[in-house]
Design goal:
globular; alpha+beta; five-stranded mixed sheet; 15 helices; eleven-stranded mixed sheet
């Protein structure tokens, strides 16, 4: 281990020694974020924000491909508007930040800083929709929201976070439900195709669903410490919001009807998922398709004839192929450059020195497994895309194996508690459907229901918590 690598790694707490501190160390040392003077509000530094931009790029492409349009709505919601849907208000009221003064004037009506934007979209839709010809409306916005959290952690839970929130209205229940499941599939593909994270998908219980929704569907990821992380959700609202906000349309049969509504969102907590699923004791390990820098070129003895020139030529060739590449031609030592690249999780490092030039090859190092390979300088650019695919697939498989190895059935409540306490991960268990059992589980184990999986497995006939007849299988876990 080089001196540079040794020094940087010592600045990171070992992952299995203190996972929470390891996470914070990586967020800071990899320069993803920084804290501000306002508690719970963070700065997204360029490297962290670039990860978010790559997530945005995939989602924007998929949203627009399926007929969605980007919009932007105000940051604030008049309190009277916010209060229109009772269940929604009850769910978000404890977390709201409220503006009471504008300039030097006390406001005649308080303004809620948006915790989510359903009511703003509803108010707008009620004004622009009158006929079946106006439907569907499929809008999405990229923005920040504020929720006054008591306990915060970078990316995972903050007083302000970045996200996208889709809001759509449809003429029929069938079309709205199709939208909800279609968007869930896009989130699932984001995990498998970009983040190298296998998501468990399913429906939320009544207790865990979104405030005001009839049904909520979720993508859940499993972290290295065997806690779950809700990673993207979609909601079917039925006609509840439409009736509260009078969003009606005249259908083809001339009858006035309420619209069927959905919303769906994913946030910067996905950055936290990437860190906690893939990271190691040396720092970040980024999947290639989401990495801001996919390839870093490190010239060795760059003052020697031809080294820097060849490194820059290689950089230009990589960039011409659409590969996000950079070169570290600073005066830092090679060991320090290697350690910094590891800390930042750059998927591929290419080393070029005088001896490499003589033999017309370079050293290619893959971050996820530290494997070193000699590749001809004539072939390295053409081989990078297949190497990305190999890295992505390998990282996905490791994460998938972790989910499989840490998903366990429990046939009794004692077995459930033992697994949650001793091993963590997902516990599959039959459930009667009574919230009292969910409440008891949370109170006694801190575990919560994560989802009702689409593919149900019959593990038994009774609910292990209360002994009543079981209605469904549910995944439970401790979660962030």
């Amino acid at each position: 281990m080089s001196k540079g690598n040794d020094k940087l790694v010592k600045e990171i707490t070992a992952r299995d020694e203190d996972f929470a501190q390891w996470y914070t160390d990586v967020c800071k040392k990899a320069e993803l974020m920084d804290y501000t003077n306002a508690k719970g509000f963070i700065i997204y530094r360029p490297y962290g924000y670039a990860i978010w931009e790559n997530i945005q790029e995939f989602l924007n492409h998929e949203f627009k491909k399926t007929g969605h349009q980007n919009v932007y709505f105000p940051l604030v919601i008049p309190e009277s508007l916010f209060m229109k849907e009772a269940e929604h208000v009850e769910g978000f009221a404890p977390e709201t930040a409220i503006v009471t003064i504008g300039g030097k004037e006390v406001l005649s009506e308080r303004l809620i800083i948006r915790p989510t934007s359903e009511v703003l979209f509803c108010d707008h839709y009620s004004k622009i929709v009158s006929s079946y010809r106006d439907l569907p409306k499929k809008y999405n916005q990229w923005c920040s929201v504020v929720r006054w959290e008591k306990t915060t952690r970078p990316f995972l839970r903050g007083s302000e976070f970045l996200w996208q929130e889709g809001h759509t209205i449809h003429a029929t229940e069938e079309e709205a439900r199709e939208e909800v499941l279609g968007m869930l599939e896009i989130y699932k593909r984001l995990g498998s195709e970009v983040l190298a994270i296998p998501f468990v998908t399913g429906k939320k219980t009544e207790k865990e669903k979104f405030a005001g929704a009839m049904e909520t569907y979720t993508t859940e990821a499993l972290m290295h410490d065997n806690k779950a992380l809700q990673s993207g959700t979609t909601h079917y609202f039925g006609t509840g919001f439409a009736e509260a906000f009078n969003i009606t349309f005249q259908d083809k049969d001339k009858v006035l009807k309420p619209v069927h509504q959905t919303s769906w969102g994913a946030s910067t907590r996905l950055i936290g998922a990437i860190i906690m699923v893939h990271g190691d004791d040396s720092g970040l390990v980024l999947p290639p398709y989401v990495a801001p820098t996919q390839v870093l070129i490190v010239p060795i003895q760059q003052q020697k004839d031809g080294v820097l020139e060849k490194s820059r030529e290689l950089l230009a060739s990589l960039e011409s192929k659409g590969i996000r590449a950079s070169i570290d031609d600073s005066d830092k030592s090679p060991g320090w450059k290697f350690a910094e690249a590891e800390m930042k999780g750059i998927p591929i490092r290419i080393e070029i020195g005088p001896r490499d030039l003589e033999q017309n090859h370079c050293v290619v190092v893959t971050r996820y497994n530290h494997e070193k390979t000699l590749i001809s300088l004539d072939e390295v650019v053409s081989k990078i895309p297949s190497l990305f695919e190999k890295i992505h697939n390998a990282m996905y498989q490791v994460a998938l194996d972790n989910v499989k190895n840490n998903t366990r059935p429990a046939l009794t409540y004692d077995e459930f508690k033992e697994i949650i306490d001793q091993k963590g991960g997902y516990v599959k268990m039959m459930w009667c459907g009574d919230q009292a059992c969910e409440d008891k589980i949370k109170e006694e184990t801190s575990a919560t229901s994560r989802c009702i999986p689409f593919e149900q497995e019959h593990l038994g006939d009774i609910c292990p918590v209360c002994g009543k007849k079981a209605k469904m299988e549910v995944y439970f876990a401790k979660a962030y």
